[in-house]
Task: structure prediction
Amino acid sequence: MTGPANTSGITGIADIRDITDEAAMRIAIDQARNAGLVGEVPVGAVVMRRGQVIATGYNRPITEHDPTAHAEIVALRHAATLLGNYRLPECELFVTLEPCAMCAMALMHARFKRVVFGALEPKTGAAGSVLNLFDNSVLNHHTAIQGGVLADECSQLLKDFFAERREQYRQRRASDFAEAEVIPTGDVTEVAVPTTTPLDGINP
Ligand SMILES: [Zn+2]
Result:
């Protein structure tokens, strides 16, 4: 990825930042796809530092038997280990879904410079949907927050994933029902008696 090489002319800093944000979010989207491929809810994250990828992560609580293994935490841990520091003030984290309260606090503890997310999470989002921990001046002095970058793509990944899961569930239910229907019953045995049987010769 190239940095903001040209800041002159009609291309302003804001435009360059937008392009860079989208490019970073596309890396996070690729990570989210990785999560979907292993059956996890598709959320992905990437940690950037001075325009470079430092670490990536995708959602994996089921695989890891770890309820804290959200994409942000996985990426954050990799970044902190790589940099040998529990504080990451030069880093920005991009994540496809609005962070939950656990991730929001972890990112603030790590003193991330900025957190950028894609889709809103109306049930657990802690960056404005349910509450906004980043906006609390008592809790947060370091981390800027921004949402809505490639929100439609990020959200579509989740919609497709859950639609596929619902379809699998429906098919499983239909298949269980079909198996239940072929269990033989007494009525079936009676009906199976051939009508051409010379009943007169057997029965008294
Ligand atoms: Zn989280």
